[in-house]
Amino acid sequence: MKSLYLIGTPGSGKTAIALGLALKFRKEGLNAGYFKPVGSTPGVAAAHDEDGILMKEVLKLDESLDTLVPLTASLFYVSAFKDPKYCQEKVLNAYQAIAAKYDPVIIDGSSFPWVMAGFGLDAPSIARLTQSAVLCTIKVDNDFTFDEAVFINNYASMMGVPMVGTVFNNVPRPLLAKTEGPYASLLASFGYRWMGTIPRRREIHAPTVAEFFEVLGGEILTGEDRLDLLVEDVLIGAMTIESAIDNLRRSLNKAVITGGDRADYALAALETSTSVLILTGGLYPNVNVVARASEKGVPVILVHYDTYTTIEKLSAVTRRIRPGDDRAIGMALENIERYCNWHEILESLKV
After folding, report:
1. In terms of domains, do 181 and 240 share one?
2. Is 292 helix (H, G, I), strand (E, B) or coil?
3. What's the whole-model pTM score?
């Protein structure tokens, strides 16, 4: 049976789908395994890719994390690794060790399909090296994100990699019908298959305050015990209170980003449904802000970036399923069973 390589971009839910498929295949009596050729770590203190840790624990895999995730790449990996051939051999040897024990192997793609292309270790290249079939996972926000699906399918096909199809994941309610109708039809016109549409579910897709803090760093001024709050929206506090109050009231479970000197905006945000207050510029806020946030149980994070840089960094924030998060793990399996054509995905892997 071929291995299944999941390719997508940040927020597309590759790991949640990989977990759900592995659990479903095992439920069907198959000995499904997991492999992530190129991982990443959330910070300088972390030694291993968190997805590998999750899969090792949930699937009860005996292999070491260095086998499950042989490489972890940073933004400046070229200087760190130096030798493309060595890296390719390390990935292939680790994969062969996994593939000798598990069938099928679910291969989890890196954050972007092109990561480590300079070493010949981009996702389509590894899929070809491991003779895997590719499942494209796409988070749908608009028609341009649908174009990502077409582009990835086209590129992987041109690389000679067999395409299983595309799963649209984390889809907001207004776009559900569009993915099952026009998007699925357009994919079919290119010769590609739609394999399901998974709706947005806050419990599995909304990141937590802790995941915001992992990306931003900074100083937690209050709410250290509330970092598990979910963040469903982000608002930028750059307008007057009179102009912003309606937006603050309409947006639920939000992160509010504003300057540390905007006590008026911060206090107004704290009177609405706010999960975290992020204060930029390294400016310590008015004591009333910290006191009110503490009363409301809202974490406050002080960062030294300007607002623009803070927003830019937040593009790297994604929801991660953690070991022990039984509800999210159960939802990962439920999403495959309810919303994906898992039978067709499995049939596509049979040689």
Report:
1. no
2. helix
3. 0.78
